[in-house]
Amino acid sequence: MNAAPRAEALGDSAVLLHFGEAIDAAVNARVHAAARHIAALQLPGIVELVPAYASLAVQLDPACWSGGAPAPAQRCAAALLDALAAAPEARGSFSTTIEIPVCYGAGFGPDLDAAAARCGLAVPELAALHAAADYRVALLGFAPGFPYLLGLDPRLHLPRLATPRTRVPAGSVAIGGAQTGIYPRELPGGWNLIGRTPLRLFDAARTPPNRIAAGMRLRFRAITAEEFRALQAEEDKAAADSTA
Amino acid sequence: MIEVLRAGLLSSVQDQGRRGHAAIGVGRAGAMDADAAKLANWLAGNEADAAVIEITLSGPALRFACAATVALCGAEAELRLDGERIAGWRPQAVAAGSVLDCGGLRRGARLYLAVAGGIAVAPVLGSRSVDINAALGPCEGRALRAGDRLPLAAEDGLRLRRTPAWSLAPALWFDPDPQRRLRLLPGAHYAELEPEAQQALQTAAFRIAPESNRVGLRLQGAALRLSRPLELVSAGVTRGTVQLPPGGQPIMLAAEHPTTGGYPRIAHLIEADQSRLGQYRPGDSLRLRLVGTDEAEALRVRRAQALARVHHYIEQKLLEIRCGA
């Protein structure tokens, strides 16, 4: 039996439901189960659900929740807590698994050598440890389609770069503190770049635009530079075909 | 079609924003002064959510290939149509081939140009808003440049034989008086501020830092300190959330804010004041006041009622025009 979530008003038009305070796979699974449950209720006046590590933000249309005391955000929070209390205790299983091919180093991960030295590991060891773990997509945030992954081996925790890069190439696989993630397109960023995937993870012209979704399981598969180029050519062709 | 002759400092296509995609990291974007964009749309005979051009600090020069009806609301500007001064806050007839020059904005930061029928760029993920920070949306996800051509759906729009003599009184909708305070609800971490910081939040005059943009307003002033350090896990944030980074200079999140954030949430701008956030210029003074949930709700209802009244008034005036009065 899990403790009931706690509601925090984010001003007068949003509510943050807390399921815990830490980065934890079981707590995150409850967040995604709650998001699915609330989405399925199709309540009027709920305009946005934003799952994160240990919380679910709910943006509301206050006009739909208005009508004397309490104020709309408080009224909505109470309704959401009631709905979750009445919901069957979801196991929040991470069902879908996505495999992400990654070429570690080889010009695709400019920080790999320094990262390995810092962790006291040989370069192939770091890559093998990173690819061996079973990850869970905790949330998409920072930029469209950017996945924050749970499950990084504690031996691979690395401080962020002292000076963030202004341009991180699209597809870069990176470690920032206790987290690992993938830059879905060229962005500024301060994480350690250890490899790159040739997959186009986010394309606003596709439906859905994101290939990776919060709540998924994710595994990395190490590939060679030749495989990277072959896969990249396939991705380019698919993108060109879809816009043609 | 509209041709951009001169883009101005930062002009972009915006509507009321992109909803329903925050879970994949795609934020709302949309007009910074959403009410001014709505009013311009209503005056041009459009729905509130039609796409408009958001103009920032220095205005663009635009050539209209076809005759159109436009309306301009928001910041004060020296508006010229083919060299002649024109007024904002009313429907304005524009002849084919005319050039609208919006000049520099004198007071306020953002001006909205609505065109009858709307700017007809293709929507991306359900919205015509350009998210400049995320490089997402129509117009390649970027601000306008000289040489850009914007399609119009003018055949659907309001047609004017001549520009009416009336205009809306802007005072209710545009008030850049720096002495007027933006109103906040306390956030979860307000109680963690040192007592002096709690006081400073309501007594200090903050300055809008030059690096403020559509992502957020950075507030300069005496550093606000927490009574103990907080280590937070990133969580969803919303437009108007006032975050406090370790340096002590708060950031008030705006239209293009990231969907999640990990800084302490000391306060949140109330719904009734969201549009005013869009009219602060870098260097402006900003004062804040905390209110309770009941006052915030009363202010929200009052603002919504005032908007509904002015919408009704505009509809009546446009009906007179359409009936040839």
UniProtKB/TrEMBL annotation, chain A:
Keywords: ATP-binding, Hydrolase, Nucleotide-binding
EC numbers on record: 3.5.2.9
Chain ranges passing through the membrane: none
Stretches assigned to the Carboxyltransferase domain: 5-212
GO molecular function: 5-oxoprolinase (ATP-hydrolyzing) activity
PANTHER family hit by this protein: 5-OXOPROLINASE SUBUNIT B
Protein name: 5-oxoprolinase subunit PxpB
UniProtKB/TrEMBL annotation, chain B:
InterPro entries: CT_A_B (IPR003778), Cyclophilin-like_dom_sf (IPR029000), PxpC (IPR052708)
Keyword terms of this UniProt record: ATP-binding, Hydrolase, Nucleotide-binding
Domain Carboxyltransferase, first and last residues per copy: 23-306
Organism, scientific name: Tahibacter harae
Name the record gives this protein: Biotin-dependent carboxyltransferase family protein
Keyword Mitochondrion (UniProt): no
NCBIfam families named among the record's database cross-references: urea_amlyse_rel (TIGR00724)
Nucleotide-binding is among the record's keywords: yes
